[in-house]
Specification:
By secondary structure, the protein is α/β, with parallel strands linked by helices. It has helices spanning 39-42, 44-54, 81-92, 120-129, 142-145, 159-166, 198-210, 224-230, 240-252, 276-280, 290-293, 309-313, 316-321, 364-371, 376-379, 393-396, 405-422, 436-442, 447-459, 464-481, 488-496; strands at residues 2-11, 14-25, 30-34, 63-69, 103-104, 107-108, 114-115, 134-138, 152-156, 214-217, 267-268, 281-282, 287-288, 298-301, 323-328, 331-336, 340-345, 384-387. The chain contains 21 helices and 18 strands. The relative contact order is 0.10.
Length: 505
């Protein structure tokens, strides 16, 4: 007897429909899984056999063949255990009331317990799009799947519990659908705890308001890392769509601890020894990297020039396009990567080049090599730069309280609201996402500002990309000022923060 049920395969951060077919034939005992399974899927034979026996059912004595269709695409992971077991039990007659429209996903332990699997949010979205009314998932994944409305989510704790539910003996209650509130979380580092550094704080405020990339430069201990860790505290809360995008990525990567919606913007801080695969994604299954895990959040790269140049150059396309396509032998996946890059660096390897009190000990050749780690095309993709000088004793112990993160966040939220109204009906969220085609429409200049930018392009020999980014930053400064048009003062401030690297204009 042959039986087929529905399941799903994870491809990047999306899911595609899959059919699990089971056939039991007479002959010598055997258990085969076909349909281009990887090692984890092939090993499901032993897990499924043990789970069925330990759940109180007898495993068929004939030849069992399981087909994962379509057969021409590779199947990976342990999420097919549950649908394979259900298909076999249905073929044996232990399940007589198998629903025709349902999707199953889950890993089985040897005792029949159902374990969580990655990518359940994408599977739930596939079920809704395919108009499949019911989804059976592990208990630990139920809160994640319940984020998708209009489908019934059945949390399964064990294979036996699922069989009893399907037979109507002991019905499992569906998981409730509830959308959590998205409030800006409180971060440990507050702007008020950072004394001085008004320029750096202003630059970070502009970056948070428009989603612009930042480069902080200064000697060791000047506060670059502390400022970067304070940045999440002034970012607005995630919108529901942004939270869903972020949750989908973490779910596919298997990093959604506890399930449910991610309510805080990601803050990723990879070490400078990280490989290109760790940063941009890849590996045997083309997993998402740090730039995708930082989607709609912050990617903080401390000691920026210490990263291998090959790794830094991989950032160029994602910084420009907001996506990354990872191609491997197992397949090609495209991941979103719209992150706010915060890079921090010392002025030289020893950290004291240009310091009026501490002498730099770097040789000219070593200093030149250090500066060449950051290429012109990479710097061209950074919108804002700020010097973070070392503070003296009086500045560190000043009694005047600095503005706290909550107050700064209010201004950032107001600037973001202006952008939301301006870009209503488009897919644009922040000024940094404006395309060159839309700059003329959304970045009108006063006459004085037009003359200033014409002079700046000629004097500083700005590239087309630098010119466009200058307009976007000016648009954000105008939003913080509540101005409809970009004025001369807004453009002048944006020019002041333009990144400058020796030999690069």
């Amino acid at each position: 007897m042959a039986t087929s049920i529905k399941s799903a395969a994870l491809c990047g951060i999306a899911a595609r429909a899959l059919t699990v077919e089971a056939d039991i034939a007479s002959g010598l005992p055997g258990f085969a899984v076909v349909g281009l399974p990887d090692a984890a899927v092939s090993e499901s034979r032993d897990r499924v056999r043990a789970a069925i026996k330990n759940s109180g059912f007898s495993f068929p004595s004939g030849r069992v063949t399981v087909n994962l269709a379509p057969a021409d695409s590779r199947k990976a992971g342990a999420g097919y255990d549950l649908p394979i077991a259900v298909a076999i039990l249905a073929a044996c007659g232990f399940i007589t009331k198998l629903p025709h429209e349902a999707i199953y996903a889950g890993e089985l332990s040897l005792d029949g317990t159902v374990r969580p699997v990655p990518g359940v949010l994408a599977i739930a979205e596939l079920a809704r799009e395919s108009k499949v009314p019911c989804l059976f998932v592990p208990v630990e994944n139920a809160a994640e799947a319940a984020l998708v409305p209009d489908i019934k989510i059945i949390p399964v704790g064990s294979l036996l519990a699922l069989v009893l539910h399907l037979e109507g003996t002991r019905v499992i209650d569906p998981a409730p659908h509830a959308l959590p509130e998205l409030n800006a979380p409180e971060w440990e580092t507050d702007f008020a705890a950072i004394r001085g550094q008004p320029t750096a704080k202003r630059v970070l405020t502009i970056a948070a308001s428009g989603g612009h990339n930042v480069l902080l430069s200064g000697p060791p201990g000047s506060g670059k890392t502390m400022l970067s860790h304070a940045l999440p505290g002034i970012l607005p809360p995630l919108t529901y769509n942004e939270a869903l995008e972020t949750t989908r990525i973490y779910s596919a990567a298997g990093l959604l601890a506890g399930g449910g919606l991610i309510s805080a913007r990601p803050f990723r801080h990879p070490h400078h020894s990280a490989s290109a695969v760790a940063i941009v994604g890849g590996g045997a299954t083309a997993r998402p990297g740090e730039i995708s895990l930082a989607h709609r959040g912050i990617l903080f790269m401390d000691e920026f020039p210490e990263f291998p140049r090959s790794v830094l150059e991989h950032l160029r396309e994602p910084l420009e396009d907001g996506t990354i396509t990872v191609s491997r032998a197992a397949g090609t996946n495209t991941y979103p990567a719209k992150f706010l890059l915060v890079a921090a660096k010392n002025p030289c390897p020893c950290g004291y080049a240009g310091d009026p009190q501490i002498s730099c000990v770097c040789s000219p050749s070593r200093l030149e090599l250090y500066r060449k780690k950051l290429s012109g095309p990479l710097i061209d993709r950074i919108d804002l730069a700020a010097e973070v000088p070392r503070q003296n004793f009086s500045e560190l112990t000043a009694g005047n309280a600095d503005e706290n993160s909550g107050s700064v966040r209010e201004r950032v939220v107001m600037a973001r609201e202006r952008q939301t109204i301006r870009y209503a009906g488009t897919r644009i969220i922040t000024n940094s996402e404006l395309s060159a085609r839309l700059l003329e429409k959304y970045c009108p200049l006063t006459e004085a500002a037009g003359k200033l930018i014409a002079t700046a392009v000629d004097r500083f020999r700005l590239s087309a990309r630098s010119y466009h980014r200058l307009l976007k930053v000016s648009r954000t400064i105008a939003d913080l000022d509540g101005a409809e048009m970009i004025e001369e003062k807004h453009l002048a401030e944006a020019l002041q923060y333009r990144p400058r690297v020796e030999g690069v204009h």
